[in-house]
Design a protein that fits this description.
Layout: H1 11-23, H2 28-35, H3 39-54, H4 62-101
Helix pairs in contact: 1-3, 2-3
Length: 103
C-alpha cells in the first residue's frame, strides 16, 4: 500500500482557511470541501488558532484552557438561545398586533 505524501500549505493559506471558518457561517467540513482539503486538517488548524487565542503565551494549564473553552461553548449556546428568544418575541408581538388590527 502506498502512502500519500503530505501536502504542505503556506501559512497564508492556513490563516485564510481558519478565517473563513471563524468569520463565516459554514462548518469546518463545508469549508474544507470548498478548499479541497481534508476536514481533519482544517480542524487541526482551527483548533490551534483557538488555543493560541485563549493562551497566546502558553502559560495556562491544560485544565484551565479546557475550562475557558467550555465556558466559550456555553456562552455561544446562551447567545444562540437569547437570539432565538428575541426572534420569537418579535414574531409573537407582530402576530398579536396583526390580530388586534383585524378586529
Amino acid at each position: 500500500m502506498e502512502h500519500e505524501k503530505h501536502k504542505h500549505f503556506s501559512p497564508e493559506f492556513r490563516a485564510a482557511a481558519v478565517t473563513r471558518v471563524a468569520e463565516g457561517d459554514k462548518s469546518i467540513v463545508k469549508v474544507a470541501a470548498a478548499l479541497g482539503i481534508n476536514h481533519r486538517t482544517l480542524w487541526t488548524w482551527v483548533n490551534a488558532a483557538r488555543l493560541k487565542t485563549i493562551d497566546p503565551a502558553g502559560e495556562l494549564t491544560p485544565q484551565a484552557r479546557k475550562r475557558i473553552r467550555d465556558l466559550e461553548k456555553e456562552n455561544a449556546l446562551l447567545r444562540r438561545d437569547l437570539d432565538f428568544e428575541k426572534k420569537a418575541k418579535a414574531f409573537f408581538l407582530e402576530l398579536d398586533q396583526n390580530d388586534n388590527g383585524s378586529k
